[in-house]
Write a structure and sequence with these properties.
Elements lengths: L8 E5 L3 E7 L6 H8 L14 H13 L3 E8 L2 E9 L16 E8 L9 H14 L6 E4 L6 H9 L3 E7 L4 E8 H8 L7
Parallel strand pairs: 5-6
Antiparallel strand pairs: 1-2, 2-3, 3-4, 4-5, 6-8, 7-8
Helix pairs in contact: 1-2
Length: about 200
């Protein structure tokens, strides 16, 4: 696990305490990530059979990519979720929709836990969205979860996402959905603000 102390974003959740986001270190965080992405509850992440070197390589690839970033989310100072952002005009959704200036693609994964906290995943996605909107250049967040991932569709709706349409990606049939800053703020009452 990385000892990186640099926090890029932080917020306090009234019910669940402090959340923060730091850069991901592909080497130092690989073992932690391996446990998360290969866990049975992470089936929609599509890395169930990944080895530790596979995970290291994937996050080294992301770290080196100009249009893709990965971050570790912390809850009360402990690693608790993975966050990725990407430019949908360059990755993932190229040719599947007309990207607009200010569009940011997003993925998130909550770490498996033996002691789930009520409302935790919603607090995580709220933190992720607030962090993405903390960048004033972000106008809209774009997601493309698997059409069968009903749990994430409900979470997306709770933070303001509106489904557009299914799109066929090489690895899955996805539900293309969008959330503007105004939709996020109206749904959650949270504004994106950097620390």
């Amino acid at each position: 696990m990385s000892t990186t102390a640099e926090s890029l974003y932080a917020r306090d959740d009234a019910a669940l305490g402090s959340f923060s986001i730091r850069p991901l270190d592909p080497f130092a965080d690989a073992e932690l990530l391996h446990g998360w992405v290969t866990h049975p509850k992470a089936s929609f992440w599509m890395m169930q059979d990944a080895s530790l070197p596979d995970v290291e390589r994937e996050y080294m690839r992301i770290a080196a990519h100009e249009h893709h970033q990965a971050f570790i989310g912390l809850h009360e100072g402990r690693p608790a979720f993975l966050m990725e952002t990407y430019d949908p005009s360059e990755l993932e959704l190229v040719g599947l929709y007309d990207a607009l200036p200010g569009d940011v693609g997003m993925h998130f994964l909550v770490a498996p836990s033996d002691r789930p906290l009520h409302g935790f995943t919603r607090a995580v996605i709220t933190t992720v969205m607030a962090a993405v909107f903390a960048d004033p250049r972000t106008e809209r967040v774009v997601v493309e979860p698997d059409v069968d991932n009903k749990a994430v569709h409900a979470l997306n709706e709770a933070v303001g996402f509106v489904p557009e349409r299914p799109v066929r990606k090489p690895e899955k049939m996805a539900l293309l959905s969008f959330c503007t800053r105004a939709q996020f703020e109206a749904a959650t009452g949270v504004t994106g603000a950097s620390i």
